[in-house]
């Protein structure tokens, strides 16, 4: 089964005047099972298993990449603020949220 994948980061305007800009991330996967009608079982597998797996993998990569300011991605972001400027604040917010969740779990 041929498989292809593409991703895209698109800057979006702020939702209000003076607000922060936003970035929309899209991941598109192309699969051709070489059949006319895709069975519901295959669609369910993609939606229930593959999508959460990909999302979890992205979370793990973000967590590991931003565990230290000396890692590759944080260095690239500092070197090219014009490219990563819109993504940086959202990633920082996400990392802060992860740290809060971890501290809550550690307390229980």
- How big a fraction of the residues is strand? 15-25%
Q: First CA to last CA: what distance?
A: 46 Å
Domain count: the total is 1
Low-confidence stretches: none
- State the strand order across the main sheet: 1-2
Q: Helicity, in percent?
A: 40-55%
What string, H for helix and E for strand, traces the elements in order?
EEHHHH
Rg from alpha-carbon coordinates? 18 Å
Structural class: alpha+beta
Q: How many β-strand stretches?
A: 2
Principal-axes geometry comes out as extended
Question: What kind of sheet is the major sheet?
Answer: 2 strands, antiparallel
Write down the overall mean pLDDT.
77
Question: How many individual helices?
Answer: 4
Describe the protein.
- Helices cover 55% and strands 19% of the residues.
- A two-stranded antiparallel ribbon has the order 1-2.
- The protein is extended and about 45 Å long.
- The chain has one domain.
- It has helices at 40-65, 72-79, 81-84, 87-107; strands at residues 3-12, 22-31.
- It starts with a strand and ends with a helix.
- The mean pLDDT is 77.
- With 108 residues, the protein is an alpha+beta fold.
């Amino acid at each position: 089964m041929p498989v292809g994948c593409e991703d895209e980061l698109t800057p979006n305007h702020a939702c209000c005047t003076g607000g922060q800009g936003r970035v929309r991330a899209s991941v598109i996967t192309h699969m051709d099972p070489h059949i006319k009608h895709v069975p519901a079982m295959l669609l369910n597998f993609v939606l229930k298993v593959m999508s959460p797996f990909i999302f979890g993998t992205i979370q793990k990569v973000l967590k590991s990449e931003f565990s230290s300011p000396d890692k590759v991605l944080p260095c690239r972001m500092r070197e090219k603020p014009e490219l990563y400027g819109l993504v940086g604040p959202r990633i920082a917010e996400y990392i802060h949220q992860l740290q809060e969740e971890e501290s809550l779990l550690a307390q229980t």
